[in-house]
Q: What sequence folds into this?
């Protein structure tokens, strides 16, 4: 019976094999590896914490229930990001939410809704001053990302936040490699325009 | 112009650095439990295979198929056994003859002993003088089997309850 510690050194494909054999610890390991990246991607796409939770949950349930259909020649991360991205895009189409400020969803009317839809980072381990500076810049970046088209946003997040290769992004988003490169280039141009004022300051 | 490019280059580097430093967000506590609560985990393969085999065997059509497969196996086995038996026929028939002679002899002695206690001395002597060979014994056994079967069928017909309506028989006067 493998423990969580044993699984940490295994590749995604090996962990998936164990999960297919019914090992609960393997399911937990896949969740441990991908809950934050997947949730972060969805959260930055939809900008609504409750919706992001629901969509991330839906993504994991879909993926873990369909492990038998997973083909090991593809990267597991591409597969899960593809499902997460599709869920987020579908949600955005349904809700018609494409851009949003850090202070809450545009549809948020009450104080509770504003609070629920405001971005809340949980992973910061910096000094207070660095954190303040970083938060200012980080907030500006987050705001600039929020203004991007969903397709550009998914590409730039997967490339620069998740650190995925262009090929993997193309696979995950079902886009030609050239299109991915173009989207990332345009996204960077738009980010540069949005953040130009920082340079002046 | 050069300054502008330098500024852009610097801004690009800044954006790249800041993008890579953006924090990961975590879902709320209990997320794993909520997900795992809705995931159907497969049972161990050996158990699944055993359950499937059991379910397969328990179905009438499957049982029939199983019986067919068994019959096919038996036929294949016979296909190998019959030629072997035919090949070994001389030795088998010699051994079978010996056993049959012994059995017929024992049967004859038993029959005569029974006849000796039932028949008169003259009838017993007549019976004793009859030459009973193995071939006769086989015919006799076949005759006895046919007679026994005929008697059983006749008895079954005779003792069969009458068909038609059930008639209530009242014994009360």
A:
């Amino acid at each position: 019976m493998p423990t969580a510690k044993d699984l940490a050194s295994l590749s995604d494909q090996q962990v998936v094999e164990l999960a297919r054999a019914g090992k609960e610890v393997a399911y937990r390991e896949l969740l441990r590896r991908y809950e934050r990246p997947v949730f972060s991607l969805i959260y930055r796409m939809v900008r609504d914490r409750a919706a992001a939770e629901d969509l991330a949950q839906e993504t994991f349930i879909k993926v873990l229930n369909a492990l038998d259909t997973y083909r090991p020649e593809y990267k597991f991360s591409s597969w899960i990001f593809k499902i997460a991205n599709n869920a987020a895009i579908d949600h955005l189409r349904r809700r018609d939410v494409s851009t949003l400020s850090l202070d809450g969803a545009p549809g948020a009317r009450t104080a509770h809704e504003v609070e629920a839809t405001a971005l809340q980072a949980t992973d910061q381990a910096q000094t207070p001053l660095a954190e303040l500076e970083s938060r200012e810049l980080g907030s500006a970046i987050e705001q600039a990302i929020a203004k991007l088209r969903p397709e550009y946003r998914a590409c730039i997040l997967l490339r620069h936040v998740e650190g995925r290769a262009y090929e993997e992004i193309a696979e995950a988003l079902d886009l030609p490699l050239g299109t991915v490169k173009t989207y990332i280039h345009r996204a960077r141009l738009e980010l540069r325009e949005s953040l130009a004022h920082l340079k002046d300051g | 112009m050069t300054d502008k490019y330098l500024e852009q280059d610097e801004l690009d580097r800044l954006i790249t650095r800041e993008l890579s430093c953006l924090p990961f967000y975590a879902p709320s506590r209990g997320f794993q439990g909520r997900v795992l609560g809705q995931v159907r985990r497969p049972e161990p393969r050996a158990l699944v295979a055993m359950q499937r085999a059991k379910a397969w065997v328990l179905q009438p059509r499957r049982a029939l198929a199983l019986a067919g497969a068994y019959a096919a196996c038996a036929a294949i086995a016979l296909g190998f056994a019959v030629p072997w038996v035919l090949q070994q026929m001389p030795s088998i028939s010699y051994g079978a003859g010996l056993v049959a002679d012994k059995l017929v002899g024992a049967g004859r002695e038993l029959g005569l002993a029974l006849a000796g206690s039932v028949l008169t001395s003259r009838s017993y002597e007549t019976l004793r003088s009859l030459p009973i060979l193995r071939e006769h014994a086989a015919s006799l056994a076949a005759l006895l089997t046919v007679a026994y079967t005929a008697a059983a069928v006749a008895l079954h017909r005779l003792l069969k309850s009458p068909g038609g309506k059930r008639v209530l028989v009242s014994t009360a006067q």
Q: What stands out?
A: The longest helix of chain A spans residues 177-200. Residues 78 and 171 of chain A are 6 Å apart (CA to CA). DSSP finds ten helices and no strands in chain A. Confidence is low (pLDDT under 50) at residues 97-108, 120-132 of chain A.
